[in-house]
Amino acid sequence: MICEHAEMVKRQPAVTVVIPAKNEAENIRPLISEIRAAMDDVFDYELIYVDDGSTDQTFNILKTIRDEGFSKLKVISHQQSVGQSFSVLNGARNGKGEWLVVLDADGQNDPADIPGMLKTLQAAYAADPKKVGIIGHRVTRRDDWVKRLSSKLANGFRDWMLKDGIPDTGCGLKATRRDWYVQLPAFNHMHRYVPALIQSMGGEMLVHPVNHRPRMAGVSNYGVWNRLWVGLVDVFGVRWLQHRAKRIVIREILNGD
């Protein structure tokens, strides 16, 4: 029994990679190939795809890849769409890694950036346990002018209100301690405010320059309305949460018989 338990502990992945996906069938195989190329020889990891109520072949393609023998892949399929924030949170809660990595399913985030981000974060955390997260900064954006303008306006207003000091909070590529992420307050669009929420719980987020690429295939699920205007409204709610959030740290548990 002791040997079996030791083997189970040994198999726990160090990193949980979560990708929320809605109607991204064409992007799945190339993105998974890039993740494997970046991660297989560097980290012990698991990959969790959260199919958020897709109406295309997203789930079937993921199931096929799993059946082909990619044992690191776990697939969670939602009966109906609940949005990116809840998809990521569901993936994080179902993960087992000490560290959590999140990236978008459209291929605009470059998996080659993940190892460097993780190593930077792990070194920072070892020196200071308050440094629990890192987020990408897309220095050169590969979006159209509408997305760039809406992001610039939203980032400026957010930083003015929340004072989080993060230049690109909308970047989908980020890494955190998983135990911190699962304690963040859950609400729609919360994925855009992870740095501010982490800070409100006493943690710190680092910034790391990352590559940004055009979408591989398909159509974005975001437009001006749900990228800019909704985000501006959310800022007021996050500002309220900043003064009320708490992180639970358990000192000890005494179990009964």
From TrEMBL:
Instruction: Supply the alphabetized keyword list.
Output: Cell membrane, Glycosyltransferase, Lipopolysaccharide biosynthesis, Membrane, Transferase, Transmembrane, Transmembrane helix
Q: Which PANTHER family match?
A: UNDECAPRENYL-PHOSPHATE 4-DEOXY-4-FORMAMIDO-L-ARABINOSE TRANSFERASE, UNDECAPRENYL-PHOSPHATE 4-DEOXY-4-FORMAMIDO-L-ARABINOSE TRANSFERASE-RELATED
Could you tell me the EC number(s) of this protein? 2.4.1.83
**What lineage, starting at the top, does this entry show?**
Bacteria, Pseudomonadati, Pseudomonadota, Gammaproteobacteria, Aeromonadales
**Annotated Glycosyltransferase 2-like domain residues:** 16-181
**Per the UniProt entry, what is one GO biological process?**
lipopolysaccharide biosynthetic process
Q: Which GO terms describe its cellular component?
A: plasma membrane
Q: What class of enzyme is it?
A: transferase
Write one Gene Ontology MF term.
undecaprenyl-phosphate 4-deoxy-4-formamido-L-arabinose transferase activity
How is this protein named in the record?
Dolichol-phosphate mannosyltransferase
